[in-house]
Amino acid sequence: MLPQTHYDYENRQMCPEPVEHSRAEVRRAQILAAAVDCFRQHGFHGASISQISKAAGMSPGHIYHYFENKEAIISAIVASDLERFLVLTAEIRSACNVREAMLARVAEGIDQCLDPLTAGLKLEIVAEASRNPHVAEIVRTADQVCRESLMLTMRDMRHAAGHDDDDTTLAAMVEVFVAMFEGLQIRTIRNQDIDRSIVIPLFQNALRNLLDHTP
Amino acid sequence: MLPQTHYDYENRQMCPEPVEHSRAEVRRAQILAAAVDCFRQHGFHGASISQISKAAGMSPGHIYHYFENKEAIISAIVASDLERFLVLTAEIRSACNVREAMLARVAEGIDQCLDPLTAGLKLEIVAEASRNPHVAEIVRTADQVCRESLMLTMRDMRHAAGHDDDDTTLAAMVEVFVAMFEGLQIRTIRNQDIDRSIVIPLFQNALRNLLDHTP
DNA sequence: CATTCTAGATCGAACGCTCATTCCATGTTA
DNA sequence: TAACATGGAATGAGCGTTCGATCTAGAATG
Among the four A60, A182, B73, B173, which has the fewest Cβ within 10 Å? Predict the structure, then answer.
């Protein structure tokens, strides 16, 4: 386990977490957790401040001491959500055996994508990004950082296997790689009876084919 | 071009379209077109009946002569959206050369998935399905029919190539196949600068690997 | 240690607005 | 004339947000 970090958007690097325990930080976390619950159940626009405040165990007005408005809550969730992914990719890249770490995380990633609760919120976030420019900016910035991190990881893996790819090829491989995972999030909503024991090996095989691809 | 058809949910088969031109049908279509526009821009819960009625060029109250409530509009859009896909798969299966038809449609499908406007609404629909049981039921029923149709198509293709797969394997291949396409819908929102000229061939190659897969 | 002070935490009523929906008067068609 | 199409105001509920009143914990003071 790496120490807790977060992504510093201004300086574009990971920073150690100051592990805040102040009352304010606790309250903020309470609100965010409650909001995640509500957004999962009713969507961004369907969930009301009143609902969120009830779930967080405080008055509606009090929410506004910690967040400027409802959209700020959305942004905070999106940001923290994607920060967690950045930590994950950083962990993979800092492992001794990058390939092993990656393959291990693949199984983990598939499981997470196939969890309907997680997938539902992720889809809500992307759908919101498709029309809310503010959310779109956060989502796209973090996505770019993730892709860059994955590109570096993939370049290492491929180089060890004797391939020497240019950046455009690597970027395309990352696109298809990520698309496959994100596609699972949609599948788990559209089909609740996925036969995991057959689908997961097939999926992993397709991933391996992609990673070992020769032009 | 096949004649216009729609999917009869009760009898589980395609039916010829009665091509209605009555005033009521025209009005309904107007409302649905306006609603699609509004939902794209503001989401299901963000778009109001008043907005939709303005876009459709009629009064808010009049909407309720054609749809019981707002959710009925959502359902009608989802249903017609997915019916169009059912028509597409039926078209592929009825082609002389199924493999050729399929590969041609693949390029078409990639283009459609990479269009942010189309993708945005599809994601909105899936996100809504992840929490609205009524929408979920429509989405899942249609998805199942699509998968069955794709399974038949894929069985033909694979059989011609000397493979004889059992149903679970075929179902899994369909899952991964569809997941890849649906993943593109998310990618086109998260990354607006996808290099199509490199990504699409790589994506098609990955698809071919999947279709020619040997266990 | 006891008291006072103060700044932040917290509440919940209130505001202005918009929403989905209803309803009835009016217009249109056959 | 009868049946349907349409408009638009009315309704009541709920929304995001604001705001002033109260509470509380802990520093400052004596």
Answer: A60
Q: Quick check: B143 and A43 CB within 8 A?
A: no
Instruction: State chain B's maximal CA–CA distance in angstroms.
Output: 61
Question: Please, what is the angle between helix A133-160 and helix A116-129, to 10°?
Answer: 120
ipTM of the complex as predicted: 0.89
Q: pLDDT at position A206, please?
A: 95
Distance CA A110, CA A119 (A): 11
Q: How far is the CA of A27 from the C1' of D21 (A)?
A: 22
CA of A50 to C1' of C13 (A): 14
Q: For position A96, what pLDDT does the model report? A: 83
- CA separation (Å) from A61 to A54, A58, A69, A71, A184? 11, 8, 11, 15, 39
A77 near A35, Cβ under 8 Å? yes
User: Quick check: A60 CB within 7 A of strand D?
Assistant: yes
Per-residue pLDDT of chain B (215 residues; tens, 9 = 90+): 334 455 454 444 555 554 456 888 899 999 999 999 999 999 999 999 999 999 999 999 999 999 999 999 999 998 898 888 888 888 888 888 878 888 888 999 999 999 999 999 999 999 999 999 999 999 999 899 889 989 988 998 898 889 999 999 999 999 999 999 999 999 999 999 999 999 999 999 999 999 988 87
Contacts of B143 (CB under 8 A, 6+ apart): A190, A191, B82
What sign for the dihedral angle of Cα B91, B92, B97, B100?
A: positive
Which residue from A136, A180, A191 is facing B180, i.e. has the nearest CB? Answer: A180
- Give the tokens for residue A187: 């599948």
Strand C nucleotides within 7 Å of a protein CB? 8-14, 18-24
What is the DSSP track for B72-105?
A: HHHHHHHHHHHHHHHHHHHHHHTSSSHHHHHHHH
Q: How many CB pairs under 8 A join A and B?
A: 176
Chain-chain contact of A186 with B126 (C-beta, under 8 angstroms): yes
For A23-32, write each residue's pLDDT tens digit: 888 999 999 9
- Comparing CB atoms, the residue among B124, B187, B206 nearest residue A182 is B187
Taking the C1' atom of every nucleotide in all shown strands and the CA of B27, the nearest one is D5
**Which nucleotide is closest to the Cα of A67 by its C1'?**
D17
Cross-strand pairs, B6: B15
Q: How far is B177 from chain A (nearest CA, A)?
A: 9
The share of chain A scoring above pLDDT 90, in percent, equals 66
A61 touches strand C (CB under 7 A): yes
